[in-house]
């Protein structure tokens, strides 16, 4: 976000050495690859994130972008739809807990 992707990449790689299954770090690292036009590098990171958090909207959205950049629009659509479902569910009000 600050225009220093190389620095961000190094920081995220270090974070992933310490916590290789950190979903947020995996997604952010994959986004750097997607921004650089390297969906093939991003996909394994996103698959790892999906295996840990299949119901995380941001993971599905990132995978949708990855598939689109990889030239797989049908796969991209599948993940985009899943993102929309999860995002809508997150936005719905939850009933109050009973005492």
What tags apply to this protein structure?
about 0% strand; mainly alpha; globular; 5 helices; about 100 residues
Explain this structure.
The chain has 99 residues and is an all-alpha fold. The protein is built from 5 helices and no strands. It has helices spanning 5-18, 23-35, 39-52, 57-69, 73-91. The N and C termini lie far apart (44 Å). The mean pLDDT is 92.
**Overall spatial form:** globular
Number of strands: 0
Strand-and-helix sequence, N→C? HHHHH
How far is it from the N-terminal to the C-terminal residue, by CA? 44 Å
Report the structural category: mainly alpha
pLDDT averaged over residues = 92
Report the portion of residues in β strands. Answer: under 5%
Brief write-up:
The chain is mainly alpha-helical and about 100 residues long.
Write the layout of secondary structure elements.
Blueprint: H1 5-18, H2 23-35, H3 39-52, H4 57-69, H5 73-91
Helix pairs in contact: 1-2, 2-3, 2-4, 3-4, 4-5
